[in-house]
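Is this the right way to post structure tokens for a design question? Let me know if I should format differently. Anyway, here goes:
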């Protein structure tokens, strides 16, 4: 079952679902819009000629933090990990799914996270990839 906006607001009011920071304007008919943070984990492509899943590769990725007045550039075919600004906590009997907005998907920017529960209340890490021949620019809404 997917919760409606009415049910989402009831769960928030009852304290069973927590989103921090929360903006009621972000509640949609059957979802809540979350926002990308300014930190991204990117692949350090110059460090290894290929990914070997049987070998430890501790410096395969590196954290990049984008300044508030700058944009993160996602190049065609690139894949990065990003987190939400919001911290989300769910009860044991609910599962959340994080998907990119259809309007972004039509532009070739894919955002995905497998279904997850979060009883401890953390940010959601998701996979961002560009499937377009154009560079995508993302700006954090933090602050």
């Amino acid at each position: 079952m997917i919760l409606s906006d009415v049910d989402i607001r009831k769960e928030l009011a009852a304290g069973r679902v927590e989103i921090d920071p929360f903006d009621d304007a972000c509640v949609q008919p059957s979802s809540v819009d979350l926002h990308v943070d300014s930190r991204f984990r990117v692949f350090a492509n110059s460090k290894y000629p290929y990914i070997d899943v049987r070998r430890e590769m501790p410096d395969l990725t590196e954290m990049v933090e984008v300044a508030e007045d700058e944009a993160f550039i996602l190049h065609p075919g690139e894949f990065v990990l990003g987190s939400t600004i919001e911290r989300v906590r769910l009860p044991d009997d609910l599962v959340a799914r994080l998907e990119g907005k259809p309007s972004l998907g039509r532009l070739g920017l894919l955002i995905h996270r497998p279904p997850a529960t979060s009883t401890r209340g953390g940010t959601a890490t998701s996979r961002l990839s560009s499937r377009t021949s154009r560079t995508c620019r993302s700006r954090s809404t933090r602050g």
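Format looks fine. Someone answered above. Worth noting: Helices lie at 5-13, 102-105. The domain at 5-138 is CATH 2.70.40.10 (Deoxyuridine 5'-Triphosphate Nucleotidohydrolase; Chain A).
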